[in-house]
């Protein structure tokens, strides 16, 4: 089918190709060098290649576009074959072909072509930073972890069947997505700890640890207080800040197992997050001189794993087991069984309880109000469990400081949920 181009649209396409070629070409010109070892192309070559692609596309001749692409590719092959430098590369050759292709794209979508030009230029300009990241900053265990995570996200999740095996539970794809989400959370916490090691900021370190386990974070902070290594007030503030991760993970669980609940839960979760963040920050800001530095960091492995797949599988199994438990109790005892199962699950993990409750239905279903109150009860029981852990691990002073914040942010969540 022939395309009729107006004069204005033709000028727009050529102007887009000109700008894209200039953008990429200027970056390459700065790195082209001089003398016999200079690179293949600079600002003029990139601009001409982009304009050639746009012109071929405007002529609406597919054969001409293909011939042009082959010609630019052949130029790159010849230039690479004649390169006698100590470290020959193909970046400029590939970028020149992309400049031609972006010129072709200009005739179909100017915004897409402009975005591609900016992305390509950014990658070209970030050579040194990307090399340092890949060679120096990134660790072998993190590369391995990223490959495993990509395999699960791109292969296991799409291939898993997407249908419940019993009622609304035991959906294989939901279970695999849970594992994937847990691995992503562990990975983010790992990267957060790496970035924060140099800063030793207690608040941010506790927040990052909370994404692994807020309860475990509260317990470890309490042990430091009991042993006399830290004061109760700042440790309690850090413990409350770790509860921000609890609210964030609650939203993640809802989005994974029953996205319909997001509209009902975002406001309560935001209220709980704000109370926990402000409460914990106030306790840390009250330190003399604004001191917020953590104690000496313990020696960490030189190449720690980005995540622990076994832990993610165990947590996902716990979440699924709690869903099955609540499903069975609900079918046996009705609403009373639903609440009983949610409370039992909350003693172990609030996210397991939330997943078990939310998977039973949607907020606008007939069971919606009962599910909402079951979730509120589960979150409350989990807050009481955290307070007990704080008292047991750090004594009454730490338990009072940390427990009051935990209960306050939970009360905010439940209150807003009740008004939703």
Automatic annotation (TrEMBL):
Ranges annotated as spanning the membrane: 6-26, 38-57, 94-123, 143-162, 174-191, 203-225, 237-257, 263-284, 312-330, 336-359, 371-392, 398-419
Domain MgtC/SapB/SrpB/YhiD N-terminal: 15-132
Highest taxon, organism lineage: Bacteria
Pfam families xrefs: DUF4010 (PF13194), MgtC (PF02308)
Keywords: Membrane, Transmembrane, Transmembrane helix
Residues in DUF4010 domain copies: 183-394
PANTHER family: DUF4010 DOMAIN-CONTAINING PROTEIN, MEMBRANE PROTEIN-RELATED
Name assigned to this protein: MgtC/SapB family protein
């Amino acid at each position: 089918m022939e395309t009729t181009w107006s004069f204005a649209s033709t000028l727009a396409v050529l102007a887009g190709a000109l700008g894209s070629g200039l953008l990429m070409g200027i970056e390459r010109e700065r790195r082209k060098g001089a003398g016999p070892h200079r690179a293949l192309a600079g600002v003029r070559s990139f601009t001409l290649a982009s304009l050639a692609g746009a012109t071929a596309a405007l002529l609406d001749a597919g054969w001409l576009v293909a011939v042009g692409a082959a010609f630019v590719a052949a130029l790159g092959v010849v230039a690479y074959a004649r390169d006698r430098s100590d470290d020959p590369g193909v970046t400029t050759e590939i970028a020149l072909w992309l400049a031609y292709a972006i010129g072709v794209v200009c005739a179909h979508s100017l915004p897409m072509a402009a975005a591609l030009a900016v992305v390509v230029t950014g990658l070209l300009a970030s050579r040194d930073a990307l090399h340092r990241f890949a060679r120096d900053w990134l660790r072998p265990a993190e590369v391995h972890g990223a490959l495993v995570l990509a395999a699960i996200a791109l292969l296991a999740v799409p291939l898993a069947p997407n249908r419940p095996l019993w009622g609304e539970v035991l959906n294989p794809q939901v279970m695999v997505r849970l594992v994937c989400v847990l691995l992503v959370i562990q990975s983010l916490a790992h990267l957060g700890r790496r970035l924060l090691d140099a800063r030793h900021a207690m608040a941010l370190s506790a927040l990052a640890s909370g994404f692994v386990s807020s309860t475990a974070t509260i317990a470890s902070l309490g042990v430091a207080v009991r042993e006399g290594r830290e004061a109760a007030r700042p440790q309690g503030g850090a413990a409350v800040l770790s509860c921000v991760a609890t609210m964030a993970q609650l939203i993640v669980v809802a989005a994974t197992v029953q996205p319909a609940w997001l509209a009902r839960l975002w406001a309560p979760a935001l209220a709980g997050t704000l109370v926990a963040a402000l409460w914990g920050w106030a306790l840390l800001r009250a330190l003399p001189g604004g001191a917020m530095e953590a104690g000496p960091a313990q020696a960490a492995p030189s190449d720690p794993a980005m995540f622990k797949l076994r832990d993610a599988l165990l947590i996902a199994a716990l979440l699924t087991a709690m869903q099955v438990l609540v499903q069975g109790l609900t079918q046996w005892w009705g609403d009373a069984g639903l609440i009983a199962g949610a409370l039992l699950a909350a003693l172990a993990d609030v996210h397991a309880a939330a997943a078990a409750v939310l998977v039973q239905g949607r907020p606008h279903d007939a069971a919606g109000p009962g599910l909402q109150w079951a979730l509120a009860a589960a979150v409350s029981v989990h807050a009481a469990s955290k307070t007990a852990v704080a008292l047991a691990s750090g004594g009454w002073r730490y338990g009072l400081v940390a427990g009051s914040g935990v209960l306050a942010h939970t009360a905010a969540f439940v209150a807003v949920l009740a008004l939703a």
